[in-house]
Design goal:
The chain is an all-alpha fold. Helices cover about 75% and strands about 0% of the residues. It is built from 21 helices and two strands.
């Protein structure tokens, strides 16, 4: 494989958001080193400002239809990449805002926290544009390095250290699976590029099948699908809550960008073989996640198992293997972004006062903070799929794509899962609105955190009541999968 590294100015513009974030990470580090007495709030403001500029550039690219390829097709800036970059950067901004007051709890390395959040976001931005297996590995591990440190950031908390160690060990195991899978695929095809693999029309040999299966297993670890979910509950509970919020949404979005490129374009000719893998994983994730969530007493662990079930819903869209299924996955991720981050924002506000994440301690929250109780009610009902909230539209979209492909078993399991999830979400609502509070003291909500909750509430309500602009966004992003029959989807991957 040869590379043409003589990039023009217009080529560099395709990477402008990534180059800007890289530059801004260096700026934040330099400011922190040269001005050690600068408050962490100022560093947080600098971080938000830099990421906001990147978001504006990405929105400008989307509005202008800026697309292109770099490095012989290894870096792709298309509708799908822009969707996930906007997704990741938006999530990073909300997480930084939600972290401002929480970071005050850290004894050490307060400013470095924002550097790590942005570094992880940078890695996931590159993941969204990864158009070959080598880029997938490099960008995936680059984004994960930041999370290894963030999960174990509470150095005086044994649960955080345990969560970081478990996440690191299992993450290295997943990386090994990914490398071995990539080596098998390269050995069978002689290339790393998705477009070349798809255009080659190689037979599904045992070596190639095992290679792709190992790659799916590694990505399944990143999204937390059953049976590769074991790291999620302990990591979610032990990590700092803003990190948990970040980990619960952004890496999953970036991983789905890769999954869509692999299965909906590169391997679309093998759809009859891999669709059963998606169906089985979706059913296991939905049933296991929702059933185990019922028994949880810690709200972060409950949302961890709920997240596993939500991945099952997303895999329903993947199992369709159609453009409509891809659109449903993208729209569902948007609904999940606002509802899940909003729920964790409420948890951050509550834990800063109560120092507890136990569900029992949410008793009487409606009397201590009507705003937080109402916000949590909206977010939980959206996660359950109750109309007229965003989660309802997301589930309808996914089920409609499945109905079109006659995946009635998946739909049945999905409906059962909705009923189960509604049960344990209602338990939390009951405690907030019916039970008496153990501590009558009101719960203050910092302004930055309140802004995050308001944004998430607005997103949850608007996507539920006026979903069309966001559906159009998803349709535009999935346009690279137009005409998904045989090798027709390869066109979206070619330079």
């Amino acid at each position: 494989m040869t590379f043409d590294l003589q990039l023009s100015f217009s080529d560099l513009l395709l990477m402008l958001p990534e180059l800007w974030v890289t530059l801004w990470i260096c700026v934040v580090l330099c400011v922190d080193c040269l001005m050690p007495r600068l408050s962490q709030r100022t560093v947080a403001a600098l971080s938000v400002g830099g990421m906001a500029v990147a978001l504006l550039v990405l929105l400008g690219y989307y509005a202008s239809g800026t697309h292109g390829m770099l490095f012989k097709g290894m870096f792709a800036l298309d509708g799908l990449a822009l969707f996930f970059k906007i997704f990741v950067v938006g999530a990073a901004i909300l997480v930084i805002l939600a972290s401002i007051d929480y970071v005050g709890r850290f004894r050490f390395f307060k400013s470095e926290y924002y550097f790590l959040v942005m570094m992880a976001a940078l890695g996931m931005m590159f993941m969204a544009s990864a158009n070959d297996l080598l880029s997938v590995f490099v960008t995936l591990e680059f984004s994960t390095f930041g999370f290894y440190v963030l999960v174990a950031y509470l150095r005086d908390d044994l649960r955080s250290s345990e969560a970081g160690l478990k996440f690191f060990i299992l993450g290295v195991f997943a990386a090994a699976l990914l490398v071995y899978g990539i080596s098998l695929v390269y050995g069978e095809t002689g290339t790393f590029l998705f477009a070349t693999i798809a255009a080659g029309g190689a037979d599904l040999t045992p070596g190639l099948a095992v290679g792709w299966l190992l790659i799916f297993a590694a990505l399944g670890f990143k999204i937390g699908a059953v049976p590769l979910h074991s790291w999620i509950p302990d990591t979610y509970q032990g990590a700092p809550t803003p990190v948990t919020a970040y980990l619960s949404i952004a890496p999953k979005g970036a991983a789905f960008a890769i999954l869509l490129r692999i299965f909906f374009a590169t391997l679309i000719v093998f759809k009859p073989q891999w669709v059963w893998l998606m169906i089985g994983t979706a059913i296991l994730s939905m049933l296991y996640g929702n059933i185990v969530a019922i028994a949880q007493k810690n709200i972060k662990r409950m949302l961890a198992y709920s997240g596993i079930a939500q991945i099952g819903n997303l895999l329903i869209g993947m199992a369709t293997g159609t453009k409509m299924g891809a659109e449903a996955v993208l729209f569902y991720l948007l609904t999940y972004l606002f509802a899940n981050l909003g729920a964790f924002a409420v948890i951050i506000a509550f834990s800063q006062t109560s120092r507890s994440d136990e569900i029992e301690d949410y008793s009487g929250l409606s009397r201590r903070s009507p705003f937080l109780a109402f916000a949590m009610l909206i977010f939980l009902l959206s996660l359950a799929g109750v109309p007229p909230l965003a989660g309802f539209i997301g589930k309808i979209y996914v089920f409609a794509a499945a109905i079109k492909e006659e995946l009635y078993t998946l739909i049945t399991v999905g409906l059962i899962s909705i009923v189960i999830s509604l049960y344990y979400y209602i338990i939390v609502v009951k405690k907030m609105y019916i039970n008496e509070p153990t501590d009558p003291a009101p719960i203050p909500v910092p302004e930055a955190l309140k802004a995050v909750i308001y944004v998430c509430l607005a997103g949850t309500l608007i996507l539920g009541m006026w979903p069309q602009p966001f559906m159009n966004f998803a349709v535009s992003a999935a346009s690279i999968f137009s005409g998904m029959s045989g090798n027709s989807a390869v066109a979206g991957l070619l330079p």
